[in-house]
């Protein structure tokens, strides 16, 4: 991957997302595990890496992905140094999808990027001495440009406009036209997909009975699904298959609040 020319040696900065709280940590490849969500600003490869372990909760996962996209543009400041501003590449790695060849390749690239023997400035700014010497920025050269004077002559006066001839007025021509009635607008019939209606009822029931919910769309065996998490209340996955909405777990996870959501949902479905 290409790197930008910097006026200082390049750094790597690792940030850990702990339940929505983002804080710098010393670069350590062992932190890229199933329990952690990490953002690594990599100035050697001009890349913002986002690592999300398979066991990371949905709220933390969504926060880490959102912050990664933001930090790719703004970078992160440590002391007086801003690291990783306007990096060219953003690589989001969801460990739970490691069976996908592209994700597996990205995991290997990420682990190779963060491995090595690192030294640190300002406690968290990691650099490798050999790479720091290799990528030292060259001084900016200013090319001289010759200046040529151009003599501008005064513009010639515009020619006088030709005299217009006054044409004799023409007699108006009257044409008879048959006006066809405007075509009627055909309104398509509303969708009768029962699974979509049930999914809407499920979302409504969750919103009505929980203070905060997170949703995530996914696909399973060619069918669309939605994951709904109400922190501390329930986590369910619903798959739309034909006219059916398959919700797992079927008891919505138990608990009093989850039971309220389940009862509300079943009440709406019974009216279809």
* Distance, first to last CA: 55 Å
Number of separate structural domains: 2
Number of strands: 13
Output the strand order for the largest sheet. 2-1-3-4-7
If you consult CATH, what is the topology of the largest domain? Severin
CATH class of the largest domain: Alpha Beta
The residue fraction in helices comes out at 10-25%
By secondary-structure content and strand pairing, the structural class works out as alpha+beta
| Order of helical and strand elements | EEEEHEEEHEEHHEEEEH
Largest sheet: 5 strands, mixed
Shape field: elongated
Give an overview of the whole structure:
By secondary structure, this protein is an alpha+beta fold. It folds into 2 domains: 12-134, 3-Layer(aba) Sandwich (Severin); 194-269. The protein contains 5 helices and 13 strands. The protein has a 5-stranded mixed sheet with strand order 2-1-3-4-7, sandwiched between helices. Strands 10-11-12-13 form a 4-stranded antiparallel sheet. The protein has a two-stranded antiparallel ribbon with strand order 5-6. α4 packs antiparallel against α5 (256-269). The protein starts with 11 loop residues before the first strand and ends with a helix. The relative contact order is 0.11. Mean pLDDT is 82; it is low at 137-153 and 186-190.
């Amino acid at each position: 991957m290409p790197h930008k020319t910097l006026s200082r040696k390049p750094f790597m900065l690792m940030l850990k997302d702990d339940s929505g709280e983002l804080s710098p940590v010393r670069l350590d490849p062992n932190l890229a595990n199933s329990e952690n969500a990490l953002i690594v600003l990599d100035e050697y490869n001009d890349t913002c890496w986002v690592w999300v372990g398979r066991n990371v909760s949905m709220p933390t996962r969504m926060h880490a992905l959102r912050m990664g996209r933001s930090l790719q543009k703004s970078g992160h400041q440590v002391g007086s140094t801003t690291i990783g501003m306007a990096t060219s590449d953003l690589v989001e790695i969801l460990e739970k999808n490691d069976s996908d060849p592209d994700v597996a390749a990205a995991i290997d690239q990420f682990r190779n990027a963060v491995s090595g023997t690192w030294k640190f400035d300002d406690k968290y700014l990691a650099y490798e001495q050999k790479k720091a010497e290799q990528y030292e920025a060259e001084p900016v050269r200013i090319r001289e440009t010759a200046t040529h004077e151009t003599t501008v002559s005064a513009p010639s006066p515009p020619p006088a406009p030709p005299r217009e001839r006054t044409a004799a007025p023409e007699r108006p021509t009257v044409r008879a036209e048959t006006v066809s009635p405007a075509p009627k607008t055909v309104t398509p019939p509303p969708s009768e997909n029962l699974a979509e209606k049930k999914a809407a009822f499920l979302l409504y029931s969750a919103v009505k009975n929980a203070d905060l919910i997170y949703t995530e769309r996914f696909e399973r065996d060619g069918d669309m699904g939605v994951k709904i998490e109400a922190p501390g209340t329930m986590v369910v996955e619903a798959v739309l298959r034909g006219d059916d909405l398959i919700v797992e777990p079927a008891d919505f996870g138990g608990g009093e609040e989850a039971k309220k959501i389940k009862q509300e949902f079943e009440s709406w479905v019974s009216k279809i």
